[in-house]
Amino acid sequence: MKNLLFLLGLLLCVIPKIVAQDKIVPCYRIGGHYFSKDLSMDEAFKISSSIKVLGDNEGNRVINLLVDDGFKVPKSIKKYEIPFEKVKNAEQLEEGAQNLAKMNKLINSTGVAMFQVGKALPDDFSETDLNGKTWTKSDVKGRVTVVNVWYSGCGPCRKEMPVLSMWKNKYPGVLFISANFEEADKVKRITDKAGFNWTHIVDDTYFTKRVGKQGYPLTIVVDKDGIVRYCKNGTNDDIRSEILQVVEKWNKL
Q: Which of 11, 101, 173, 210 has the most neighbouring CB atoms within 10 Å?
């Protein structure tokens, strides 16, 4: 794990320090504070080894170390801090950081009944799609339903969208729903660009809370009686093949 973090830090931090308009591309974000690559990885990862990667629209990457609320910058690293007004594309990075914080809060929710194959969908829900339609558990009964849970920072999720779109045309009787915790405008921009033709639930909490620690995407298949018949994190050709086999089976019944 330490070697992986070292390589990640090395790759991300080999960037020009000073850029146009005297703005600085930081290497780290820690608790809302930004730091230059002069802060060593050893020092940074003593604070936290739980990381996510932030990016801006220019392709710059920043290591976001996850810390508890109320984090205060230790005096030992204060000299490496970059003032917010000097950070290149700070607003974009902060938007990404808040997005990740929202996601982490949802997927780490406690007391949530997870999806289980052979069991009914847990609890009830009320979620809204891009067209303003409200969806509840009763709306997904009566036909096979596939739910794909994704978010904007998941590369494999976005890469598979054109493939998933073909499923809707192949199985017109099946309900295909994507669920994303992010705001409607962002989801619409991404799905329109990808031509992703499923029904898109936005500002989702119900499905996102059940992604778990295995990561995105999460795909479930629910039969006509509301029973979960498939549930798996991740995506590749084999997983997509499994999903279609389950859809074929339960759609014939």
A: 210
pTM to 2 decimal places: 0.84
Contacts of 92 (CB under 8 A, 6+ apart): 56, 57
* 181-204 per-position pLDDT tens digit: 999 999 999 999 999 999 999 999
Q: How many C-beta neighbours within 10 Å does residue 148 have? A: 25
- What is the C-alpha separation between 119 and 214, in angstroms, rounded? 20
The answer to whether the peptide bond before residue 172 is cis (omega within 30 degrees of 0) is: no
The kind and range of the H/E element at 229 are: strand 228-233
- Assess contact for 127 and 139: CB atoms under 8 A: no
Amino acid sitting at position 3: N
Predicted local distance difference test score (pLDDT) of residue 11:
56
Tokens of 58: 């220019």
Count Cβ neighbours within 10 Å for each residue of 20-48 and write b for 16 or more, e otherwise. Answer: eeeebbbbbbbbebbbbbebebeebbebe
Gyration radius (Cα) of the chain, Å: 21
Kindly report, residue by residue over 202-237, the tens digit of the pLDDT: 999 999 999 998 999 999 999 999 999 999 999 999
Report CA 220 to chain centroid distance, whole Å.
Answer: 16
